[in-house]
Amino acid sequence: MSVSKEDVRYLANLARLEFTDKEEEKFTNDLSNIVDFANTLSKVDVENVRPTAHILDLQNVLREDIVSESYSREEILKNAPSKQAGCISVPKVME
Amino acid sequence: MELYNLSLNQIAKKIKSKEVTIKEVLDSVYKRIEALDETLGAYITLTKDNAYKKAEYLQEKLDKNEDIGILGGVPIAIKDNICTKDVKTTCASKMLENFVPIYNATVIERLEEQGAIILGKTNMDEFAMGSSTETSYFKKTKNPYDITRVPGGSSGGSATCVSADMAYASLGSDTGGSIRQPASYCGVVGLKPTYGLVSRYGLIAFASSLDQIGPFTKNVEDSAIMLNIIAGNDKMDSTCANTKKEDYTKFLVNDVKGKVVGVPTNFLNEGVSDDVKKAYDEAILTFEKLGAKIKNINLEYAKYSLATYYIIATAEASSNLGRYDGIRYGYRAKDFSDLNDLYTKSRTQGFGDEVKRRIMLGTYVLSAGYYDAYYKRAQQVRTLIIEEFKNAFKSCDVIAIPTAPSTAFKFNEKSKNPIEMYLEDIYTVPVNMAGLPAISIPAGFDKNNMPIGLELIADAFREDKIFNFAYTFEKNTNFNKVKPNI
């Protein structure tokens, strides 16, 4: 197994996901298989090959810094799962 | 022949010449949807009220002899990961089940400016992650040629609705083959334009260095018409290239004499079924008979595309999907103990298994200690893939390969083993890796009468060559005239 159960727990925490024991086992297995598959790349000689940063030869795309109309507060809040007094409400962060 | 059977160009002409009213056209297509979609499951949301309102508005304009646009009154469908103002855009995920965008994607603005009417939003794999549309949170979409089989994915709903005449055209998105593979499975034309040709503003991001929007159509001509409308620079998408406006219909020329088709001989045996291989060989023969030159080429690195893809696409997905935290929009868990728990519970309950698998893999390849071994190496292999294609196009006008190694498979046949499912994309993924344009066109049927697709790839921004070859093939074969018996 190229990916261990501990790896899965560690990654799940980084990705803010939670798994049951059974799921943990399944993901350990699935991820191991996929990582083994990805390991075929180790056969490729990549010495002195520049990594691709962007597919198009685009330079910095800039625009004038002009103030313009944006969305209203009401519209922006339309999809918020919980709101209060014109703000998005979240649980208390500081004790 | 019913109205819904016609092509996009045919129906647009009939509307403009006032042979039919827009309402009659809408009635015909919605009747078709009502008759079939309970079985096929192509649509997640129907936008009937809006559609009839727009029909009325456009008809009034037309009756006063005002311009109603290239697609004036033509009903089309949109994949549910493309934002439509005031219309639910779910990405086929519980995470966005109730998400109602407050703006339109640029492609939607452009289609509506040209008078298109949106019929509804189509089913897909959750967050466009999948090759069979089976990972949708809402439902399974069936293949119109055999309802016990998948339509392909991730844009399965968009392929099915065009194949079954439940829309004249549709939009999909293609990150690793999500337009071309379902087009191949459902016997329609699917185009993935060059990276940067079509604005992605309003497309819900999966893997930003690969995602591209493109059309599903009933024939090649309609594909060029759709591309004319959606292509072009957009100030809202800084990854959009600065291309000049092109009329792609002028490349619909039935002649490939003296032009060169590249055949990657060492890349044609990646699990390809006998029927697909036979159809492919016949397609190459067809081009040869039409006077094209066939050139054997060697694609050494293409076979590494899939492994490269699953590193780069998942890495990008894991960061793109970081935004779904239950705070500003999307699903929020009901019970949680603190802020961190809110994030974790919302994401755990809101995402399905395939999405979680890819977020986990992306997190893995980006995490400390693995970055160089996986992510950086993948980007280096990507450079080799890009250079190899560039080199091939020095001597070829297009490269032809099968769109997928097999035809549409049965439900649950490949969902147990993720790798087996991923292998369905072996012939489409290299194109995304290199940002190239490619089309899938109908090119045969297997022993079960399931459609087989032929993929034509061109150099970046050479959609002209794709249309020239695809149109010539279509005009000299009969595969395109076959309709599913449903």
Structural class of chain A: mainly alpha
The helix tally of chain B amounts to 15
Task: Tell me about the largest β-sheet of chain B.
Answer: 11 strands, mixed
- Low-confidence sequence ranges of chain A: none
Per DSSP E runs of 2 or more residues, the count of β-strands of chain A stands at: 2
CATH fold-level topology of the domain at 5-42 in chain A:
Histone, subunit A
Cross-sheet strand order for the largest sheet of chain A: 1-2
β-strand amount of chain A: under 5%
Report the CATH superfamily of the domain at 5-42 in chain A: Glu-tRNAGln amidotransferase C subunit, N-terminal domain
Largest sheet of chain A: 2 strands, antiparallel
Write the layout of secondary structure elements.
The complex is a heterodimer of chains A (95) and B (486).
Chain A lengths: L4 H10 L6 H18 L34 H5 L5 E2 L2 E2 L7
Antiparallel strand pairs in A: 1-2
Helix pairs in contact in A: 1-2
Chain B lengths: L7 H9 L5 H19 L2 E4 L1 H16 L11 E5 L26 H8 L3 E6 L33 H8 L5 E5 L6 H7 L2 E4 L20 E5 L2 H11 L29 E5 L9 H16 L3 E5 L7 H16 L18 H12 L2 H14 L5 H21 L5 E5 L15 H5 L6 H5 L4 E8 L5 E7 L5 H13 L11
Parallel strand pairs in B: 2-3, 2-4, 7-8, 7-9
Antiparallel strand pairs in B: 1-3, 4-6, 5-6, 5-10, 9-11, 10-11
Helix pairs in contact in B: 2-3, 5-6, 9-11, 9-12
